[in-house]
Design goal:
single chain, alpha+beta, Alpha-Beta Plaits, 3 helices, 5 strands, elongated
């Protein structure tokens, strides 16, 4: 299966999160405030297992999923901005618990959110409240050995 297929399925699932207005593949240079909060998915690489995995080969596709909130330092302090996007922790956990195989995408054996953190980080010229999740999508690829 292609990485693009996995990313497309992730986008479809992420758009079902209550409160998410847009999903981007990469962090945009400019945003419309009407799009907040929005989500970005950054691909960070694939690890290939060296041992047989359920009759095939294991590929772990790694992503950083970021939910971007309002700018910090405008009308509310940092703590309030981070608190405002906190419900997305539970929503992301619930989304991947219910879709452990990316909504039954063929070849995906499981998805795992391994780390979640709240941050204030730059986007464009502003510092924004954000939540980051490390996500691993494990794919089994059948290997046929012929003589």
């Amino acid at each position: 299966m292609s990485l693009e297929t996995i990313q497309t399925r992730m986008k479809v699932l992420h758009l079902t999160l209550t409160g998410i207005n847009r999903v981007h593949k990469d962090t945009p240079n400019a945003i419309d405030t009407a799009d907040l909060p929005f989500l970005t998915v950054r691909y960070t690489g694939t690890d290939m297992g060296n041992t047989p995995f359920q009759g095939g080969r294991r590929y772990d596709h790694n992503f950083i999923v970021t939910i971007w909130g309002d700018p910090v330092g405008q009308a509310q302090d940092e703590e309030e901005r981070l608190y405002a996007i906190r419900p997305f922790f539970e929503r992301m956990e619930a989304l991947y618990a219910a879709n452990i195989q990316l909504d039954s995408l063929s070849g995906v054996t499981f998805c795992e959110l391994t780390t979640a953190r709240s941050l204030v980080q730059p986007m464009g010229k502003l510092m924004r409240a954000s939540l980051e999740f490390d996500l691993t999508v494990t794919e089994k690829v059948t290997v046929t050995v012929g003589l």
